[in-house]
Amino acid sequence: MNAIEEARRLLRRAKADLTALRNMSDTGIFDEGIFGFHAQQAVEKALKAWLAAKDQTYPLRHDLGELFDALARAGEEAREFQALSLLTPYAVQFRYDEISIDDERLDRPKTVGEVGALVEWVETRLDSLAHADSSNQHDG
Fold it and tell me: Considering 2, 87, 93, 130, which has the largest number of Cβ atoms within 10 A of its Cβ?
């Protein structure tokens, strides 16, 4: 599988998590940990898709800050999405630990909007990289 195909595969999985998120607005049905987990997963897969499209090896861990750092090293600008790093604890910690009343709750509509914006950005970036790759193959 080439880099763009791998990136598209990851992005499809990110979109599946985003679809789940969009349907988890009811806090009485979906607890914070489940919502946060799918938000984190959508971001993680989108960032890994972005790295894969750049033909970069991505870490096989769940730390979103580490993925943002890898993008920066690859020369990619992702500052506007960096705040999504706060979702990292939902990958593991909050899957197994209960979130207490004292913990800050995610603003679900805002989180869905920010994760959706990232997924859309990555899809646009993939299309651009795929087009550039296709042009380079025809030129060479």
Answer: 87
